[in-house]
TrEMBL record, chains A, B:
Cross-referenced InterPro entries: Homeodomain-like_sf, HTH-type_TetR-like_transc_reg, HTH_TetR, Sco4008_C, Tet_transcr_reg_TetR-rel_C_sf
The HTH tetR-type domain, residue ranges: 17-77
DNA-binding region: 40-59
Protein name: HTH tetR-type domain-containing protein
Native organism: Kribbella hippodromi
Keywords: DNA-binding
PROSITE patterns listed in its UniProt record: HTH_TETR_2
Pfam family, one: TetR_C_21
Amino acid sequence: MSPRRSPQPSERQRDPERTRAAILDAAVAEFAAHGFAGARIAAIAARAGVNQQLISYYFDGKEGLYQALSEAWRDRDGDLAATATTPAEQVRRYALEALHNADAVRLMAWGGLEYSGPASDADHRPRAERLQRSVDELKALQADGKLSADLDPGCLLIALMAAAMAPVTLPHVVEGLLGVDARSPEFLTHYADQLALLANTLGLAD
Amino acid sequence: MSPRRSPQPSERQRDPERTRAAILDAAVAEFAAHGFAGARIAAIAARAGVNQQLISYYFDGKEGLYQALSEAWRDRDGDLAATATTPAEQVRRYALEALHNADAVRLMAWGGLEYSGPASDADHRPRAERLQRSVDELKALQADGKLSADLDPGCLLIALMAAAMAPVTLPHVVEGLLGVDARSPEFLTHYADQLALLANTLGLAD
DNA sequence: GACTTTGTCAAACGCTCAGATGATAAAGCC
DNA sequence: GGCTTTATCATCTGAGCGTTTGACAAAGTC
């Protein structure tokens, strides 16, 4: 019988995988909350329950951590579109991301404002490909005469995306105008419904 | 003949008003470009061509400057709605703000992401009142049967606002998907037209 | 014309924060 | 069991940055 060469990873005192993951998780929360400039690696380390130096050990400092995080999340947020039925339903689900995946939405919003210029192509291509499929769906609807042919599908998609992110990007406006907490589940579901309704009105109900 | 008590303000060597204004202008550019956490008061002072210390002298440090800036801009961005004819036209003009008033749009976007919770009521009331009038217009359209009564006017307005800001909040997506510079006048006008078209489709054409 | 107030600047201070160094111990290997 | 590699930590360092200090001159006052 072979000797117990290594205990279960969960009971290990030293577990590189766990540590890496803990740092990444904490980084997501911190960067999503405060953006790159506002994030503090001391806060990330504290949240992850590890020594601050490990961030330099595993990743290459703050910048490297941010890039690693971007890579890790780049391909992760496209699952929702796969299972959605109609484009209108896709819009609703995208809006509901603010409820179930608020950090991802915030990261995208920070990324937009911090965006300075065309980075490496590889950086955006995966997302672009995924979105391109949505554009194709819209074009198909136009071919069927269900969606006005005057509309530029690309612009429409971007408008819907931005609209879906509104509770994250404009919480102050939501609260000032409607007097409700933009992050509350009640508002987020209501808003997602409204957006789906709006998409239906445009003819995106398949 | 009275002695020349003071030369024209423009030739003065020391002109508090001019200095204050220069700092505020520079602050708008810097905060719009990098957000609060990313802004550097050294950069603001350099841009304004004044000594860095004057920021503490006139305003109360970085925080105070940001608040002063918010106050100064709070009532300034509502003029566009006044002269617009139809709601669809309002939407187009709002989208074109990204072209003529990019800093204002970016400041609002940063403000949304940096927003932590209900601040002083006075902070958002002026904007809320202005937006409330837009909501009233939408309600009137619903009463006339021109706009679907199922839609929540408040949510619709917020969705349109966020959509109009898309070139500012999602430039990376625009460039990844459409392959064009999200800040170029060509795209911005095209996008504004598209958004007006979309608003028309919804029934916002007066 | 002397005196006060106000606007401006250069330099210094102190704090925050990201990254480096070196010590230490656990894990893997023979 | 001894050696090497790997993971982790406490502490230090150096740079960046916001603010304070103190000097000084222009503008205003009598």
